[in-house]
Amino acid sequence: MKIKVTEATYEEAMREAVKEYRNPPNSSLLLRTLVRLYSIPELRSVGFTYTKEGMERLGRKEPCLILMNHSSFIDLEIASRILYPKPFHIVCTSDGFVGKEDIMRRLGCIPTKKFVAEMRLLRDMRYALETCRSSVLMYPEASYSFDGTATPLPESLGKCLKLLKVPVVTILTEGAFARDPLYNNLQKRKVKVSAKVKYLLSPEDIAERSVEELNEILKKEFTFDNFRWQQENHVRISEQFRADFLNRVLYKCPHCLTEGQMEGKGTALTCRVCGSTYSLTGYGSLEQVDPANGNSGIFTHVPDWYRWERECVREELQNGTYHLEVPVDICMLTNLKTLYRVGEGVLTHTEDGFHLTGCGGALDYRQKPLASYSLYSDYYWYELGDMICIGNPDVLYYCFPKNSGDIVAKTRLAAEELYKIKKEEKKSKISL
Question: What's the predicted TM-score (pTM) here?
């Protein structure tokens, strides 16, 4: 999938900023039908099936909030198959509207900026539920999973359920990540995909529980491990490109501790410095090949390796050694017409947060650690490259690191851990 890009100066991009507000229109049955028909061939190719649990509790025309895990682009096709012809709106990242705003709105999409606090989103969701009498589909994780496990959920989600006062339904997929993991550069594997649809909470359930209890229920529901699922269900992936670009996720060698020198190619993940090599088996586990210098394999499970990288990043933050400073190409989103490519700059990330400078001195943006609990980052984003996005309700800055190794995953981990650390510090000060 591509995105419309326009060359511009920073000043020109800022002059094009649009703050016009529009209520979500009713979704078009014709467009929903076209999406449903478009989805048939791909869903057939993956042998898609789904099961229902407790869905008889939902009224035939009763709007609800649908929470779905986010594994790959096929998620929207799955939702269309399950929910059709029931009207529903979709909370969608604002860059998905670029160059096609009208059709996206008619399809029922509600634009939002990932990991940017916006009261407008809640207002739009309430409008869709109450005025349009339409359900709302939301991916609460916001971003695709890097390692196949659940990404953090916003702490505000429980409060959102309290305000919306509608039934909550979950759609959790199995096989979608294994078929098309984000790191693998859109190379699809032959894997069957299924989903479980569950009536999770009634309005009465929501009213009786605290925000904290609701968040715990959601956290438990959105706890999964796609690599473990693949192993336990003996799902074999025979494609020889299954480890291509796995270095985007497993960027740090557990043997020599070098970062940014791992290479995922074919079925192997190799450190260019010490030579340690792991094979990603057809069943999704890791096996060390020809151990270098007599070292034995340290990890057999991709999420365990990724979790170790998170622990390493947190340790760097706590001892004051974490520091990111990389040259980047910069794009900006100030409206839904186009993405503006505005030049080059430097992205810095420290315990004080993000600092982006560039565009001949015109751009100087800072973002504090507590601005967001996570980070919008992506691999091969709209086929432009690996990307880190920061910003506020007025403008988003899409940064594409240049010749800097695999830093996208580490930066997301650092942003998440830094948020936790700063929040803990803030709580400690308040308690004193």
Answer: 0.93
